[in-house]
C-alpha cells in the first residue's frame, strides 16, 4: 500500500476539500479532521516500521521525469520517520490550537495543509529534484501565513523570510545540480548518487558544492550569520505559524545536512568540519546571549532556536570531522535527536507565549510579572518546557545535548567547552525569564486572566507528554536514529566511517 | 558542385499546409471582420480559432514526419520548426480568445483577428526559414503585424507612441541586420544557412564577425536582447495589455528560434567564440531586466522588464547549445512554459485592469478577494516566473541552470541564480497587494468569458507542465535532437 504517498498528499486533498465545501462551520472540522487522519496514518507508518533496523523502509518508486533522470522515489528510515511523525503531530496540534480562527479561516487552514504536504514530502523524498520541489512547497505557504495573519510588521517580516529562504533554496539547487551532473548517467536519485559518490574528495569542486549546500541549509537552520530572518519571522508570525516555523521548517536545514550534504560530500566535510564547528559554537553562544537581551517574550524564544540549532550544527560538524568513530556517531545521533526534541519543546513554548499574548495582549517581559499567581497551570507548563529547553536531565533536550557534548569532547574539546558555556547561558536565561514573568508581584490588570481552555490543553498536552517520554526513554529513538545513520548508502556515518 | 536542389511543387506545398491554412484564414478574415457589425465580432474570432485549430492539428501530425527541406532548400520542415508552429498557434489562439469583443469600439478593431493570424504566420515562417532572405522577410512580417496590433487603439496617445517606437526601432534594427546579411552573402555567395556553414570558416574572421554582430542586432531586437531592448517597456506599456502579452511571447519565441537555427546551423561553435559572447549577453540581459523591474510602480512596465529578464534566461539555452545536452531542450521547455506563465500573467493583469481600470500596483490591493480567478492565475504565473516548483517555470529553469553548469560556466549559473532570487522581490511586489493588503475600490466588473477561459487554460498549463513535465521534456528533446541533422543534408 502506498502509505507514504497517501500521507503526503492527503493534506493537499484536504486543502482542496476546504474549497469545495461552502459552509464556514465545516472548515475547521475538515482541517482538524484531515490533519488528525494524517497523524493517525503516521502512527500506522511508525507501527509498521521495523524498529530493529532503522534502515530505509516503506519505499515507493514511480517514473516521474525519466528524460531528466528524476523519479518519484519515497521512503523513510530511522532519521526521517520521527520527523514525518513530528510534522503530522505539530500540524494537527497547530490546527487544533487555531480552532477559533475567525479571520479568513479557509485560506489559513488550507495553507497549513499545503505546508504539511510539502514537509512530509521533504522528509520522505529520496530523489533530489523531488526533495527540492517539496522543500519549496513547504516554504511558500509560510510567506502567506506570516504576511496574512501575522502581527505588527508582518509584511516586512514575510518578505524577508521569503527572500532569505529563497536564496538558500537556490543555493541548494545549485548543489543538487552539481551532484546530478557529476553522476553518470545523470541522475537525481539520492541512492544512486550516494552509491556513486561523485565528489568524495576535498578538492575545489567538492568545496564549491559543499559551500552551496552549506549556505542553503545554514540559512534554513539558521546559523549565525545567516539567521537574521528568523527573529522577525518567528515574532511576527501568528502562533500556529511560529510553531510550524520553529518546530518543522528549521528542521529542514538539519535534515538536509544529515540526509544530503554529509553523506554526499564526506571529504569536503572532513576538511571543513573545524570552521563549521566554530560557526556552530558562535551560533549557540550568540543565540543564548542575544535572547537574554530581548524584551519581547516571543523574540526571546525565537532566539533560543538559534542557540539550539547551533548544537545541531555542532553535532553534524563533529560527525563529519576525523576522529574516533564512536564519538562521531554519538554526535550525529545527538544532532538528529535534538531536531526532534527541539521540535517538541519549542513548539510548546510558542504555544504558551501565544496563549499569554491572547490573554494579556502583550509579550513585553517588563509588563509581565507574577503570572504564577493568576495562571498556576500555565506557570507549571512554562516551567516544565523551559527546563526541557535548557536541557534538564530526564527531559528530551538532555538526551540530545549529552550525546552531542560527549561526542564533541573527544574531537573538539574547545567546542565542547563552548557548548557548555552556551548551555550555561541558556540555563541562566530561562531561570531569569521564569523569575521575571512568573514570580514577583502580580499587577492588578492580570489578576483575573481566564484559565487555560480544553483546546489549549489539547494543543500543549501531547508535547509535554512526549518531551517527558523522550527524556525518560530515549532508547528506541536513539536506536533507530543510529541504525539509519549507519546503514549504507543513505546514512552519513556509513559513508564517512565505512571503509570505502 | 553539389547538385542543385530541385523543386517539386506538390511535395513542397504539402509541407506547408499549416502555413497555407493560416494564409487563407487571413484573406478570409479581413473582409469578414469588416462586414460584421461592431457589436457582433465573435464569429470572426470563432472562425479564426477554427482555422488555427486546423493548422495546429496538421502541425501535430507533422511532428512524426522525417525532417526535410522545401522550396530550394530554403524552408525546413523538422520537429524544431513544428514545435514553434505549435507554440505560435497556441499563443495566438489564447490571445484571440482573450480579446473577443475587446476591440469592438475601436475603429478598424475588426481587423485584429486577421492581423494576429498574420503575425502568427510570420512567427511560424521565421522558425522554419534557413535562408537569410526569407528570414529578413518573415522578420518584417512579424514586425508589421506587431506594429498594427500595438497601435490599433489610435485614440490612445501612449499606444501610438509605443507603435511609433516599435516602428522606428525595427526599421533601424532591420536595416542594420540586412547590411549584416549582405556582408555574409558577399563573403560566401550564398544566403542558405547550411551552405554558409560550409563556406564561412574560409572567410576572413573580422568580416564574418562583423556580419554576425550586425545580424545579432536584428535578432536581438526581437528577443529584447540587451542592449537592443529599450523599445520594449514603452511599447508594451502603450499596447493593449493582451497584445503586450502576445508581443512578449510570440515574436520573442520567433526571434529565439531563428537565432538558434542561424547559430547552430551556420556558425560552427568554435567560430569567434560566439557561445561565450552570447553567455555574457544572456547574463547582461537577465541582470538589466531584473534590476530595472525592481522599482516599477506600473504592473505593465514591471512585466515588460520581467520579460526582458526572462529573455536572458532563455538565451542561456542558446549560448550553451552544443556544449550541454540540456541546453536546447531546456530552451524549448522554458519557451513553452514561458508562453503559459508570461501570457498568463499579462492576461491576468489585463483582467484586473478591465475590472479596476488601473495597472498601478497600488490599485491591485485586495483584488485577491474581488477577482479571485485573475488574482490566483496571476499569483501562480508569477511564482512560476520566479522559478518555484511545482510549476512549469521551475522545470525549464532547472534545465537551463543545469545547462549552464554542464557547459562549465559556473559564473553564469551563479548569475542566473542570483537573478532568480532578485526577481522574487518584484514578483512579490505584485502578489503582496493582491492578498495581503485590503481592497480600496468597490468590487470590479466581471471578467468576460473568453478571457476567463484563456486564464484557466494558461493557469492549468503552468501547473501541469510543472507537476507532470515529462511529455513536454520528451517532446522538447525530440525537437532539439533533430535540429542538427537537417544541415548535414
Would you kindly provide a written description of the structure presented here, covering whatever features stand out?
The complex is a heterodimer of chains A (500) and B (489). Chain A is mainly alpha-helical and 500 residues long. Helices cover 75% and strands 3% of the residues of chain A. In chain A, strands 1-2 form a two-stranded antiparallel ribbon. In chain A, strand 1 and strand 2 (70-76) form a beta hairpin. Chain B has 489 residues and is mainly α. Chain B has two domains: 11-270; 273-489, no CATH class. Chain B is built from 21 helices and two strands. Chain B is globular, with a radius of gyration of 21 Å. At the A-B interface, strand 1, helix 5 and helix 6 of A face helix 17, helix 18 and helix 20 of B.
Q: How many structurally independent domains of chain A?
A: 1
Apparent shape of chain B: globular
Q: For the terminal residues of chain B, how far apart are their CA atoms? A: 14 Å
Q: How many domains make up the 3D coordinates of chain B?
A: 2
Which percent band covers the strand fraction of chain A?
A: under 5%
Q: Span from first to last CA of chain A?
A: 35 Å
Q: What is the count of β-strands of chain B?
A: 2
Query: Poorly predicted ranges of chain A (pLDDT <50, ≥5 residues)?
Result: none
Low-confidence stretches of chain B: 485-489
Give the fraction of residues assigned to helices of chain A: over 70%
Amino acid at each position: 500500500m502506498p502509505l507514504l504517498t497517501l500521507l503526503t498528499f492527503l493534506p493537499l486533498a484536504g486543502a482542496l476539500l476546504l474549497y469545495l465545501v461552502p459552509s464556514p462551520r465545516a472548515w475547521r472540522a475538515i482541517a482538524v479532521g484531515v490533519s488528525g487522519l494524517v497523524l493517525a496514518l503516521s502512527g500506522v507508518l511508525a507501527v509498521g516500521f521495523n524498529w530493529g533496523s532503522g534502515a530505509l523502509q516503506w519505499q515507493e518508486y514511480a517514473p516521474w521525469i525519466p528524460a531528466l533522470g528524476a523519479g518519484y522515489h519515497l521512503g523513510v528510515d530511522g532519521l526521517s520517520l520521527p520527523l514525518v511523525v513530528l510534522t503530522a503531530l505539530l500540524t494537527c496540534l497547530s490546527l487544533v490550537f487555531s480552532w477559533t480562527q475567525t479571520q479568513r479561516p479557509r485560506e489559513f487552514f488550507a495553507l497549513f495543509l499545503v505546508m504539511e504536504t510539502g514537509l512530509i514530502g521533504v522528509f520522505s523524498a529520496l530523489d533530489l529534484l523531488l526533495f527540492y520541489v517539496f522543500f519549496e512547497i513547504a516554504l511558500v505557504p509560510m510567506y502567506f501565513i506570516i504576511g496574512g495573519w501575522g502581527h505588527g510588521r508582518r509584511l516586512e517580516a514575510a518578505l524577508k523570510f521569503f527572500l532569505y529562504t529563497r536564496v538558500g533554496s537556490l543555493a541548494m539547487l545549485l548543489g543538487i545540480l552539481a551532484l546530478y551532473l557529476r553522476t553518470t548517467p545523470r541522475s537525481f536519485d539520492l541512492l544512486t548518487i550516494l552509491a556513486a559518490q561523485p565528489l568524495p574528495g576535498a578538492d575545489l569542486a567538492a568545496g564549491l558544492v559543499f559551500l552551496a549546500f552549506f549556505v542553503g541549509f545554514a540559512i534554513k537552520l539558521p546559523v549565525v550569520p545567516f539567521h537574521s530572518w528568523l527573529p522577525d519571522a518567528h515574532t511576527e508570525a501568528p502562533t500556529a505559524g511560529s510553531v510550524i516555523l520553529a518546530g518543522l521548517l528549521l528542521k529542514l536545514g538539519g535534515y538536509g545536512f544529515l540526509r544530503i550534504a554529509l553523506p554526499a560530500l564526506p571529504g569536503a566535510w572532513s576538511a571543513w568540519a573545524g570552521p563549521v564547528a566554530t560557526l556552530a559554537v558562535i551560533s549557540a553562544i550568540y543565540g543564548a546571549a542575544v535572547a537574554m537581551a530581548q524584551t519581547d517574550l516571543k523574540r526571546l524564544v525565537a532566539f533560543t532556536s538559534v542557540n539550539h540549532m547551533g548544537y545541531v550544527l555542532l553535532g553534524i560538524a563533529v560527525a563529519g570531522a576525523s576522529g574516533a568513530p564512536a564519538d562521531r556517531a554519538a554526535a550525529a545521533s545527538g544532532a538528529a535527536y535534538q531536531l526532534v526534541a527541539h521540535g517538541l519543546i519549542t513548539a510548546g513554548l510558542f504555544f504558551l507565549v501565544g496563549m499569554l499574548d491572547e490573554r494579556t495582549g502583550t509579550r513585553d517581559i517588563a509588563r509581565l510579572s507574577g503570572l504564577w499567581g493568576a495562571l498556576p497551570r500555565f506557570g507549571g507548563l512554562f516551567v516544565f518546557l523551559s527546563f526541557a529547553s535548557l536541557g534538564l536531565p530526564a527531559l528530551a533536550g538532555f538526551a540530545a545535548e549529552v550525546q552531542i557534548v560527549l561526542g564533541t569532547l573527544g574531537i573538539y574539546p574547545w567546542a565542547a567547552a563552548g557548548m557548555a558555556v552556551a548551555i550555561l547561558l541558556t540555563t541562566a536565561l530561562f531561570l531569569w525569564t521564569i523569575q521575571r514573568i512568573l514570580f514577583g508581584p502580580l499587577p492588578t490588570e492580570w489578576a483575573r486572566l481566564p484559565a487555560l481552555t480544553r483546546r489549549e490543553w489539547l494543543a500543549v498536552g501531547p508535547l509535554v507528554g512526549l518531551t517527558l517520554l523522550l527524556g525518560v526513554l530515549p532508547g528506541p529513538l536513539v536506536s533507530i536514529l543510529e541504525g539509519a545513520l549507519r546503514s549504507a548508502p543513505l546514512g552519513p556515518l556509513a559513508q564517512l566511517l565505512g571503509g570505502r | 558542385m553539389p547538385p542543385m536542389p530541385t523543386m517539386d511543387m506538390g511535395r513542397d506545398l504539402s509541407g506547408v499546409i499549416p502555413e497555407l491554412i493560416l494564409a487563407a484564414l487571413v484573406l478570409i478574415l479581413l473582409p469578414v471582420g469588416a462586414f460584421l457589425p461592431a457589436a457582433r465580432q465573435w464569429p470572426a474570432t470563432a472562425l479564426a480559432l477554427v482555422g488555427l485549430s486546423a493548422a495546429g492539428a496538421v502541425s501535430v501530425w507533422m511532428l512524426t514526419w522525417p525532417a526535410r527541406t522545401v522550396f530550394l532548400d530554403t524552408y525546413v520542415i523538422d520537429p524544431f520548426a513544428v514545435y514553434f508552429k505549435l507554440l505560435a498557434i497556441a499563443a495566438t489562439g489564447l490571445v484571440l480568445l482573450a480579446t473577443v469583443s475587446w476591440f469592438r469600439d475601436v475603429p478598424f478593431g475588426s481587423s485584429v483577428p486577421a492581423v494576429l493570424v498574420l503575425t502568427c504566420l510570420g512567427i511560424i515562417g521565421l522558425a522554419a526559414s534557413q535562408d537569410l532572405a526569407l528570414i529578413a522577410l518573415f522578420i518584417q512580417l512579424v514586425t508589421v503585424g506587431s506594429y498594427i496590433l500595438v497601435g490599433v487603439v489610435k485614440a490612445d496617445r501612449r499606444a501610438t507612441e509605443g507603435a511609433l517606437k516599435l516602428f522606428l526601432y525595427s526599421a533601424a534594427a532591420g536595416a542594420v541586420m540586412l547590411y549584416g546579411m549582405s556582408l555574409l552573402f558577399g563573403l560566401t555567395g550564398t544566403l542558405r544557412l547550411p551552405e554558409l556553414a560550409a563556406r564561412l570558416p574560409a572567410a576572413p574572421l573580422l568580416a564574418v564577425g562583423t556580419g554576425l554582430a550586425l545580424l545579432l542586432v536584428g535578432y536581438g531586437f526581437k528577443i529584447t536582447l540587451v542592449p537592443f531592448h529599450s523599445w520594449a517597456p514603452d511599447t508594451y506599456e502603450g499596447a493593449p495589455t493582451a497584445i503586450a502579452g502576445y508581443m512578449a511571447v510570440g515574436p520573442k519565441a520567433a526571434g529565439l528560434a531563428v537565432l538558434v537555427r542561424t547559430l547552430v546551423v551556420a556558425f560552427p561553435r568554435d567560430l569567434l567564440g560566439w557561445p561565450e559572447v552570447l553567455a555574457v549577453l544572456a547574463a547582461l540581459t537577465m541582470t538589466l531586466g531584473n534590476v530595472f523591474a525592481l522599482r516599477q510602480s506600473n504592473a505593465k512596465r514591471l512585466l515588460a522588464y520581467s520579460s526582458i529578464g526572462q529573455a536572458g534566461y532563455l538565451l542561456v539555452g542558446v549560448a550553451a547549445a552544443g556544449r550541454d545536452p540540456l541546453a536546447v531542450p531546456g530552451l524549448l521547455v522554458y519557451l513553452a512554459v514561458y508562453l503559459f506563465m508570461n501570457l498568463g500573467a499579462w492576461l491576468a493583469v489585463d483582467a484586473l485592469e478591465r475590472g479596476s481600470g488601473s495597472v498601478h500596483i497600488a490599485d491591485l490591493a485586495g483584488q485577491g478577494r474581488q477577482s479571485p480567478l485573475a488574482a490566483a492565475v496571476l499569483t501562480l504565473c508569477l511564482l512560476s516566473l520566479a522559478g518555484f516548483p511545482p510549476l512549469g517555470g521551475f522545470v525549464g529553469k532547472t534545465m537551463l541552470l543545469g545547462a549552464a553548469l554542464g557547459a562549465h560556466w559556473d559564473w553564469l549559473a551563479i548569475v542566473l541564480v542570483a537573478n532568480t532570487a532578485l526577481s522574487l522581490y518584484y514578483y512579490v511586489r505584485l502578489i503582496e497587494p493582491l492578498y495581503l493588503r485590503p481592497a480600496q475600490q468597490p468590487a470590479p466588473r466581471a471578467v468576460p468569458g473568453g478571457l476567463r477561459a484563456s486564464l484557466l487554460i494558461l493557469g492549468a498549463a503552468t501547473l501541469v507542465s510543472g507537476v507532470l513535465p515529462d511529455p513536454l521534456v520528451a517532446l522538447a528533446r525530440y525537437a532539439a535532437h533533430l535540429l542538427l541533422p537537417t544541415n548535414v543534408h
